[in-house]
Specification:
three-stranded antiparallel sheet, signalosome, single chain, PCI_dom, about 260 residues, 9 helices
């Protein structure tokens, strides 16, 4: 089963559960969601109206944890650890996996030093084990570990949830792209129209030239045929005169008196 299909089934499952429980059970469900080893998308669950029950209760921090897993990183958690509940080992692993995805969205070549700092890893062996066992085997990233250059070359990374402001930027980007595309399409259509018009003009010009060539050929042919007949008649007349001279009796000379 591919990762996208698995994600979709898990999201549907947890959405149904979150819509049917009270605040205390919502907190427990969020713990299960954020620790689940195969779930890496949370914004759809975060948008469930029933989660509003957590606001102003002792479980309100659970909502912040869910928001952290949807959009944040391990570094974000460390900066706000005083306001958030402690994470279970499975949650820590999950948040570090999500941190790798965030970095992979920004750069396709990730230096080991940057990754070790972001993930709180103390040595290269531990980092490479995490990338292989927890990221590549999980199917969320693919890439090449370059020990010589001390970097991870990203070939594929599953996308993370988009923040609301990112969605607005994406919509604006798409709108700009569509506007540019419309202008480009209009320009292409004009070019095609110009090419068609030019092609028709070239065809007409070529036809005119061919027609003139045919006229010249016909004229030359007619002229040659006419000259040929005239030469034949001329030669025939000359022969007839010669023959007539041969058969015409010659007059005898009269002797001089």
């Amino acid at each position: 089963m591919d990762i996208e299909r698995k994600q979709s089934e898990l999201i549907d499952h947890f959405v149904k559960q979150a819509n049917a429980v009270d605040a205390s059970n919502l907190a427990a469900l969020i713990l299960e969601i954020t620790a689940h080893p195969s779930l890496f998308a949370f914004s759809e669950i975060l948008s469930i109206p029933n989660l509003a029950k957590l606001k102003g209760t002792q479980y309100s921090s659970s909502l912040e944890v869910l928001r952290l897993f949807a959009y944040g990183t391990w570094s974000d958690y460390k900066r706000n650890a005083g306001f958030l509940p402690s994470l279970l080992p499975d949650q820590v692993r999950k948040l570090k996996q999500l941190s790798v995805l965030t970095l992979a969205e920004i750069e396709k070549v990730l230096p080991y030093d940057q990754l070790m700092e972001e993930l709180d890893v103390s040595n290269v062996r531990e980092l490479e084990d995490f990338l292989i066992n927890e990221c590549m085997y999980a199917g969320i990233v693919r890439g090449k570990l370059d020990q010589l250059r001390r970097c991870f070359e990203v070939q594929f990374a599953a996308g993370r949830d988009l923040r609301p402001e990112q969605l607005d930027n994406m919509i604006q980007t798409l709108s700009n792209w569509l506007g540019t595309s419309d202008s480009l399409l209009h320009l292409i259509q004009e070019k095609i129209k110009w090419a068609d018009t030019t092609s028709e003009a070239n065809k007409l010009h070529k036809k005119e030239i061919l027609d003139k060539v045919e006229e010249v050929k016909k004229s030359l042919k007619a002229d040659l045929e006419l000259r040929g007949h005239e030469e034949i008649f001329s030669e025939s007349g000359g022969m007839m005169d010669y023959e007539e001279d041969r058969v015409r009796p010659k007059r005898r000379r009269q002797p001089m008196p």
